[in-house]
Amino acid sequence: MKKFANKGLVFALISAFLYAFNVIIEKKYITYISSESILFLMYIGSGVGLLIIHLLTQKKEKSNSNKITKNEVPAIITIVLCELLASLLIIEAVKIVAASVVSLLSIFEIILTAICAYFFFKEPVKRNDLIAIFLVVLGCVILNFRSGVLSNLKLSSLLVIGGCLCWGIENNVTAMISSKEPAFFTSIKCSSVAIFYLILALLNHSLSFSYPILIVFGFFTYGLSILSYALSTRHLGANKTTLIFSFSPIFGVILSILIYHEKLTSTFIISMLIMISAILLINRDVKDS
Predict the structure, then answer these.
(1) Which pLDDT band, with edges at 50, 70 and 90, does 179 fall under?
(2) Mean pLDDT computed over every residue of the chain
(3) Do residues 29 and 94 touch, judged by C-beta distance below 8 A?
(4) Given a cut of 60, is residue 264 above it in pLDDT?
(5) What are 9-25's pLDDT values in tens digits?
(6) How far is CA 216 from CA 22, 184, 191, 206, in A?
(7) What tens digit of pLDDT does each residue of 192-224 get?
(8) CA 254 to CA 265: how far, in whole Å?
(9) What distance in Å separates the CA atoms of residue 168 and residue 123, rounded to the nearest whole number?
(10) pLDDT attached to residue 283
(11) How confident is the model at residue 48 (pLDDT cuts 50, 70, 90)?
């Protein structure tokens, strides 16, 4: 079990690090091209890239693991719709508020995933899980208090929280069909979302290919990040994986410091230590189980 716990932890941290670039990239390009074009290019990059990975790594023997059964159709539709709605809500928030605020508020994904896991999917919550959730929420409160978000709940905050609710549902449903080959399944999901944004961009006459680099960015920030997340849920489950994934806002702040030369405050250090403690607690809980 120790081997699987460590592997799941590594995948979750990789997913968190790659996804930390997402909001920063969207914020950079949102003033140049439409949000529909940004999301189309990023999702098509992840969809095509993961399909190539699947074709290069699939086993020669035929497998039934990728076949979609009738019972799985509702789950897959739910996953695609949740990913689509979440990405739309998040990029709308990016338009009107600083990227750092969006990253900080995205910590609500962990809370909403845990709530969905417990009430709707009957996933047990252990004592260490509850302590870790408390620590992560505490770190979130400290970070958001610094930005003043909690004292003034705005539309942008509601948009991010709404996106996190969609991801919370998606995370749990994805764990239910985690037997599917991750690269293939994630490619289908990202490609489906990309097609929607392509249609939306065409209808709005806003489609632009001015920044094809977004295709590459999408492959890493969406594709490999989501793939790593899916691999992590196989070993840790949706609840624990999301707890570790909650480290992504810390990565986002670190990237902001490196890229925009922001100062490292005592508030950030305290929050980072609290969240690291939660991650270590969750990994210990998995090893002992």
Answers:
(1) low
(2) 81
(3) no
(4) yes
(5) 889 889 999 989 998 89
(6) 12, 18, 14, 20
(7) 999 999 999 999 999 999 999 999 999 999 888
(8) 11
(9) 13
(10) 62
(11) very high
| Reduced 3-state DSSP string for the chain | CHHHHHHHHHHHHHHHHHHHHHHHHHHHHCCCCCHHHHHHHHHHHHHHHHHHHHHHHCCCCCCCCCCCCHHHHHHHHHHHHHHHHHHHHHHHHHHHCCHHHHHHHCCHHHHHHHHHHHHCCCCCCCHHHHHHHHHHHHHHHHHHHHHCCCCCCCHHHHHHHHHHHHHHHHHHHHHHCCCCCHHHHHHHHHHHHHHHHHHHHHHCCCCCCCCCHHHHHHHHHHHHHHHHHHHHHHHHHHHHHHHHHCCHHHHHHHHHHHHHCCCCCHHHHHHHHHHHHHHHHHHHHHHHC
Q: Is 149 exposed, middle or buried (0-12, 13-18, 19+ CB in 10 A)?
A: buried
Two structure tokens written together for 87? 């990405």
Site of tokens 């509702």? 74
* Residues contacting residue 24 through CB under 8 Å, at least 6 positions apart: 99, 252, 255, 256, 259
Contact 263, 278 (CB under 8 A): no
Q: How many CB atoms lie within 10 A of CB 266?
A: 8
From 286, 281, 257, select the one nearest 138 (Cα to Cα).
281
Task: Give the C-alpha separation, 223 to 9, whole Å.
Answer: 18
Give the pair of three-digit tokens for residue 261.
């030369």
Helix (H) or strand (E) holding 8: helix 2-29
The token pair that represents 77 in the structure block: 């539709």
pLDDT in tens, 110-146: 778 878 887 777 777 777 778 878 888 787 777 666 5
